[in-house]
Specification:
The protein is an alpha/beta fold. It has helices at 18-21, 24-27, 31-63, 68-116, 120-125, 128-170, 172-179, 182-219, 221-226, 230-282, 288-330, 392-398, 422-427, 443-448, 456-465, 469-472, 492-506, 522-536, 548-553, 571-575, 581-586; strands spanning 4-5, 332-333, 352-359, 369-376, 381-385, 407-412, 415-416, 429-432, 510-514, 540-544, 556-561, 564-569. The strands form three sheets. The protein has a six-stranded mixed β-sheet, sandwiched between helices. It has a four-stranded antiparallel β-sheet with strand order 4-3-6-7, covered by helices on one side.
């Protein structure tokens, strides 16, 4: 489909850190905070590195020199060092966590703002559950990366470098024994890092697939329950969950193997250091305090190596998450804003023209609209009629640029709609769908969705015009009544009148109406019909017609078949045309009718 283009990079070998580099512009406004956090981190790390050396002096004062006053001074010094370290750690963690929350929130905002502007075709290719999973779990991984990974990477790097330096100063011979494990740990990181990244990406993909399935089932809950398919949907979801668990267990096995190997190698080196250092103590070449100090530095270096290896695995996972998030941000909509939009010089009159318009959903698919030319004058009501699949809905969707034409052009007041900004174009068009979509807020919120700055009087006027106030005023909370997800707490006729009120409030010059009464009871239909009569007065209207009453209301009937216009005229003229498609539709000679005579 021509919704958006997503380019997925290959997943072989090491992950490039390039996606993480794209976080830098979001971090730029917080440079000062991050600099202070880094300084605090360095001070805290230095305090941690000083501790083993001070401990050496403390032990030597107690066991070698037996100096009580020196022991007291050194103990107080250690308390001061730990106090400074605690203060620096608090400051660093607070600044980094607060910055991370803001940066990830901004990235979520940017991702959502980008997705919400993509053309509808994009959402026909990607399930909403998958997209919400990207916004939650993948960005959650990035948040963990920024809040803990960067801090730990810096801290453990300082510990590694500082520990090696202090080891070299204390005893170069033992230092070589300690550092012998580094090649082994790096080799394990290389081998396991690739596998961990691939496994983590697989887990996130399974999570997205499972959440997409759940979202789809919840969105169609009435259909699921009406066909008693709860067990099947549960089994499908469980199957995906099992696949996710299997992938997660595989990742856990890799992690456990990695950490086990690294831990064994690192602490085996500590044992070697203890053995070799103990021999030097026995030989009188090393004091017990110096050996303990060296041991602490060895533990620091070993822990740093182990932590960096662990962080390497997290780094691979975070790159996978960042890659998927930035794939969404890099998706390019097929419907784009013009670089230099044309400004309409006067109020929109509503003159609409389709000029030799053709359209296909993809280059490799046959066209669904074929060389359509149709001129609608301001204030004219045109009904689109034809059997199912004739292209009526697709043609009406091209006007507000939910998709762009493949050939030809569509104009509004003589201006190509592709030259108008989307805000200008769509603000001139009001759409009343056959199945109106309401949001889970209040009735007032749903009507004001068309114009958030509308006053209460404006909203009341729109509700009265749509015959919605008649049921709203009888509700206990009136405007503040919450309608539930997709308006489930309201009847079909009430939802439809709210949708019409929303268009009244928008006050568009052009109305696209997908027959709004075809699924309503008689009483609701009469109220909605009355609302539509008022709505269509003086507005250019394109109706996807299903019922005869709507067709008779139209100034002109346009009959479509196989994506092309085959007949035009008034209802009476077309009915009288022997052998015409409209006459056969009207007389029930063609299956899959789009004109229903029930109200004839």
């Amino acid at each position: 489909m021509a919704g958006a283009t997503l380019v997925t990079p290959p997943r072989k070998g090491f992950a490039s850190p390039r996606p993480l580099a794209r976080l830098m512009p979001l971090l730029a406004p917080y440079r000062a905070r991050l600099a202070v956090a880094f300084v605090c981190l360095v001070i805290a790390a230095c305090a941690g590195l000083v501790f083993p050396r001070v401990l050496q002096y403390l032990l030597d004062a107690a066991f070698v020199f037996k100096d009580r006053s020196a022991l007291d001074r050194i103990a107080l010094m250690l308390l001061g060092i730990f106090a400074v370290q605690a203060l620096m750690n608090f400051t660093q963690v607070y600044l980094l966590s607060a910055t991370t929350e803001r940066v990830v929130a901004q990235l979520r905002q940017n991702t959502f703002a980008h997705l919400i502007r993509l053309s509808p075709a994009f959402f026909t290719e990607r399930r909403t559950g998958e997209l919400t999973s990207r916004l939650s779990s993948d960005l959650g991984l990035l948040q963990s990366l920024l809040s803990t990974w960067v801090s730990e990477l810096s801290r453990q790097t300082l510990f590694l470098i500082g520990g090696i330096a202090m080891l070299s100063i204390t005893n170069p011979g033992l230092t070589l024994t300690t550092l012998a494990v580094v090649p082994l740990v790096v080799g394990a990181a290389i081998v396991f890092g690739r596998a961990l990244r691939k496994a983590s990406t697989g887990v996130q993909d399974k999570v997205a697939e499972a959440m997409g399935t759940a979202d789809e089932a919840f969105g169609a809950i009435r259909t699921v329950q009406s066909f008693t398919r709860e067990a099947e949907e549960t089994a499908r979801f469980n199957g995906l969950l099992n696949s996710m668990v299997d992938a997660a267990i595989k990742r856990a096995r890799l992690r456990a193997s990695f950490f086990g190997i690294v831990g064994f190698v690192a602490f085996a080196a500590v044992v070697a250091v203890l053995w070799q250092g103990g021999a030097q103590v026995l030989a009188g070449r090393l004091t017990a305090g110096a050996l303990v100090s060296f041991l602490f530095y060895s533990l620091t270096v070993a822990a740093a190596i182990g932590s960096l290896a662990t962080l390497f695995g997290s780094f691979q996972e975070a790159i996978g998450a960042a890659t998927r998030v930035f794939e969404l941000l890099d998706s390019v909509a097929s419907v784009r804003e013009p670089i230099h939009p044309v400004q309409l010089l006067q109020a929109v009159r509503g003159a609409v023209s389709f000029e030799q318009v053709s359209f296909a959903y993809a280059a490799d698919l046959p066209p669904v609209i074929r060389d359509v030319t149709l001129v609608i004058t301001p204030g004219e009501v045109v009904a689109l009629v034809g059997r199912s699949g004739a292209g009526k809905t697709t043609l009406s969707s091209l006007l507000p640029r939910f998709w762009d034409v493949s050939d030809g052009r569509i104009t509004l007041d003589g201006v190509d709609v592709r030259a108008l900004s989307l805000a200008t174009l769509r603000s001139a068009i009001g759409i009343v769908p056959q199945e109106p979509v309401l949001f889970s807020g209040t009735i007032r919120d749903n009507i004001a969705y068309a114009r958030p700055d509308a006053t209460d009087d404006d909203i009341l006027h729109a509700a009265r015009a749509a015959h919605a106030w008649e049921f709203i005023e009888r509700l206990p909370e009136q405007w503040q009544t919450r309608v539930g997800e997709r308006g489930v707490k309201l009847s079909g006729g009430q939802r439809q009148r709210i949708a019409i009120a929303r268009v009244f409030l928008r006050d568009p010059a052009v109305v696209v109406l997908d027959e709004a009464t075809s699924s309503l009871d008689t009483e609701s239909e009469q109220l909605v019909e009355a609302a539509l009569e008022r709505l269509l007065q003086g507005r250019t209207t394109l109706i996807i017609a299903h019922r005869l009453s709507t067709v008779r209301r139209a100034d002109r009937v346009v009959v479509m078949d196989n994506g092309a216009i085959v007949e035009t005229g008034r209802h009476d003229e077309l009915v009288a045309r022997d052998g015409g498609l409209y006459a056969r539709l009207y007389n029930g000679q063609v299956p899959a009718l789009s004109v229903v005579r029930a109200d004839a």
